[in-house]
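Q: Given only this backbone (114 positions), what sequence would you predict?
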């Protein structure tokens, strides 16, 4: 990735990382976002990629971690084989869900009232 300073600065040494940080903090200030660090974007990337099911070794390479143990902090966000089944059971409202029983046999109505 290449960072370019929109206005050349003659009074200091050009530092693309520092300039990117300044641009980031100026943007979040304009957006009215409080307490967001530049590093939070990196952590969000790792978290979202793990949650999407990216293999940990692949994520390790993308994030530039020397050790897999560093990448494994994101592993608890990675989906497990049965996760989709549990989410569908909890939120899908499937008619096959045995916990719901026959229509009309629910102890409570949809609004939680008998």
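A: Predicted residues:
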């Amino acid at each position: 990735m290449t960072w370019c300073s929109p206005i050349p600065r003659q009074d200091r040494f050009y530092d693309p990382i520092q300039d990117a940080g300044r641009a980031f903090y100026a943007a979040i200030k304009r957006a009215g976002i409080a307490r967001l660090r530049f590093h939070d974007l990196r952590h969000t990337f790792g978290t979202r990629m793990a949650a999407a099911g990216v293999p940990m070794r692949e994520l390790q390479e993308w994030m530039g971690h020397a050790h897999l143990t560093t990448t494994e902090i994101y592993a608890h966000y990675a989906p497990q084989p049965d996760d989709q089944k549990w989410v569908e059971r909890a939120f899908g409202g499937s008619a096959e869900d045995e916990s719901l029983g026959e229509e009309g046999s629910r102890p409570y109505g949809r609004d939680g009232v008998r």
